[in-house]
From TrEMBL:
Matches recorded under Pfam families: Rieske
Name under which the protein is recorded: Nitrite reductase
Start and end residues of each Rieske domain: 1-92
The keyword Metal-binding is assigned to this record: yes
Length: 104
């Protein structure tokens, strides 16, 4: 948990899958971090009011459900993953990967 910036993101890679972890005023969120537009790292985007903006072309995604917010185009939504906090550890449920991510 301490490794996560306040109001920002961090990229972790699990089995070649990019996972963006975000600590916000609304809680901690995990989403697929590869932008569906052109593959930028969403974990480097600015976060405001629970929304991350892609650092390249500024597409916006809601962290709570991964919804793409700039058009009615659900095909651009990103996956989200349940996050559990145990003390200083962050556990992310990744359904396609048998292991969880742990940050200490
Ligand atoms: S790469 Fe993310 S909006 Fe273009």
């Amino acid at each position: 948990m301490a490794d996560l910036p306040d109001l920002g993101g961090r990229l972790v890679v699990v089995d070649e899958q990019w996972i963006g972890l975000f600590k916000t005023d609304q809680g901690v969120f995990a989403i697929d971090a590869m932008c569906p537009h052109a593959g930028a790292n969403l974990a480097k985007g600015n976060v405001c009011d629970g929304v991350v903006s892609c650092p390249v072309h500024l597409w916006r995604f809601r962290l709570s459900d991964g919804k793409y917010l700039d058009a009615d185009a659900d095909r651009f939504n990103v996956k989200t993953y349940a996050v559990h906090i145990e003390g200083e550890q962050l556990l992310v449920e990744l359904p396609v990967v048998p292991n969880s991510v742990r940050l200490i």
